[in-house]
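writing this on my phone so excuse typos. first protein, seq and then structure
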Amino acid sequence: MRVTLLSAVIALSLSATAFAADDVSKVNGTASVEAGAHAGDVSSVNGSVRIGDKAVIETASTVNGSVDLGDGASAEAVKTVNGALTLGERAQVKGEVENVNGRVELKNGADVKGHLSNVNGTILMDHAHVGGGIETVNASITVGEGSKVDGGILVKKPNWGWHSENNRPPTIIIGPHAVVSGTMTFEREVKLYVSDSATVGKIEGATPQKFSGSAPSGNRGT
């Protein structure tokens, strides 16, 4: 009986090892995972990270390069320092999405269950969801039509450690039928536009300008 039990434990251990997802790491160049594949941590230093449609990974991260999470793909966390970050349609991130300098785009049905943050760039949501709030310093934010942000929005006051070539106030747009639950707090000057069909919570530090239609006048097509 002891031998049988020991054999079973060894077999299970070997089975778990055999099915463990491998990490993908690059120093220079693109780190990629094919559509539908499984992987562990996928990273690059000087290069992009490409995650195929419906792939499942642990984390996607790079220092200098973009990160693309394909349609229906899933990750625990996504991070980049200098580069754009895109979540495809119905892509899911179970933890945080972090970006320092670059555009963050959440396409139709994308879902970030944790916190979303960047310093410089833009944040765009299209019928997407963020569950842990949005935080930025210099980014303009569009919570597009039908999108939802739980946990509020925080635009922090810049300090000496955060630089931006554009000193204009960020533009914050809460689009038609969008929902922002929690407080929207603005520690610096912003231009805040809220659709007349949107639902928002408490607003601190800014006076919203109401608009009708798909976007505020002068921002249509943005």
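second protein below, same order as before
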Amino acid sequence: MEVKVITRHTPNNYGSLLQSVATLRVIESLGHQCEIIDYWKRNEVGLQGILTSLQGKTSWKNNLLKRMAYVALRYPGEKIATQRFDKMRARYLKLTHRCYSSEDLKLLRADVFMTGSDQVWGPLLDGKHDEAYFLSFVKEGIRKVSYAGSFGRTEFSDSIVASYKRMLSRYNALTVRESSAVRLLEDWGIDCEGQVLDPTLLLDSNQWSGYIKKNVKGDYVLIYEIHNNPRLDDYAKRFAAHVGLPLVRVSPTLHQATRGGKMIFCPELGTFLSYIKNARYMLTDSFHGTAFAINFNTQFLEVLPNNKTGARNQSILQLTGLQDRIVIDFDDFSLADRQIDYAEVNEILKEERWKSVEKLAELCAY
């Protein structure tokens, strides 16, 4: 079959890139042809993306000098990150022609169109939902499916729920990434074939290690942070001091350099994976950071994001029985001594990986 996947592959972050790489690789391993639809929203990239993001920053947007400062702080790092991620996308992904509009998307041809993983059904930078990620451009009669689709949150207005019902009812088959998404679809009266693993967990640690050209050496505590969370920054510094190890921060956003730890800015994909694989401890508020820590059997601590997106993090912890890795008391460092026994976790992953790949195979076939 010829399968084309639309997903959030364009943001300059490792989760978006790695889940796209995994989706492509696993579908190809099932014997199909696969491409990632190279769909770009102009207001989410480069300077325009920064200006769009600024609209949601109430403490910055209402003052001209602050707006100018925000752009000046963000643009140089974003430009460098875009250049580096463009190279990684070109190297690791098979992409269609570039699409900017519904008209561009309607020119695509495939036996199966798939909405991929990540927060494809959640609000974008401008706070709106894009019907392209609901395969609105696909003609009737062509198979439309989702693999590990995610809403990114669990609370929506009545008007958004009405739009979801209309758009999701057009799919031939739906699978989602979080248990909370299964419940949402059930509440809305929409058929769902269940929860499946995030694509990054469909590849095992050996397969991901194949992307690592040179392993990072030395003992360190790693912080991989997605949200602006001073609580996590402060805890990470004190945790590293408690265990007597240096703190290393890996990030595609240059402004995190002021938050503490030795900054590793926007490393190549294999180097990023190596930092997670070889960390003595990892602290993260990232769903994909958590996923890779589990995949590499890295000892990790979870700080839930201080917004409405924590359900996705909790879902993977519940699935693997690792809810006790959530930091509750920010003066407690006892998790350093409570090591994860990954034997049972790996058995759970092995079983869930097999079931999810089977489901993906069904989605790709008539």
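The CA atoms of residues 52 and 103 lie 23 Å apart. thats all i got for now
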